[in-house]
UniProtKB/TrEMBL annotation:
Localisation: Nucleus
Protein's UniProt name: Interferon regulatory factor 1
GO MF: DNA-binding transcription factor activity, RNA polymerase II-specific; RNA polymerase II cis-regulatory region sequence-specific DNA binding
Domain IRF tryptophan pentad repeat, chain residue ranges per copy: 1-82
Subunit structure: Monomer. Homodimer. Interacts with EP300. Interacts with MYD88. Interacts with PIAS3. Interacts with SPOP.
Any one of the GO CC terms: nucleus
Organism of origin: Pan paniscus (Pygmy chimpanzee)
Family annotation (Gene3D superfamilies): Winged helix-like DNA-binding domain superfamily/Winged helix DNA-binding domain
GO biological process, one term: immune system process
Amino acid sequence: MIFQIPWKHAAKHGWDINKDACLFRSWAIHTGRYKAGEKEPDPKTWKANFRCAMNSLPDIEEVKDQSRNKGSSAVRVYRMLPPLTKNQRKERKSKSSRDAKSKAKRKSCGDSSPDTFSDGLSSSTLPDDHSSYTPSCLERDSLSLAGS
């Protein structure tokens, strides 16, 4: 199963913490790294922590050729993988550390931002306002996605 997450850059015109960082804020609250009123909002850190969490999951991988890194419709596209056995997790872990070293050496550039993704998703499938993405909304959507 493939899903996409809005990934608009905070320095871009029109970025709004309540619309564009609500998923990252919800993740920070869920993990205990942010409590409203106790700390200053830090969407840059929330986003980085969420990205690291997604990258560390063994059954989720980013579909880089379908992700859009620039513009107001920037998204990260991820794929859910079948659960891994214990041996497969070990193999993947050693492979991912090798991949990270080779990526650091060859840093590739380029904007691969197709108008329509190969699975039929398009930029028009994302609403401009993401403030309705609340923890209860995310749970409901997770349940409906799990049934897909």
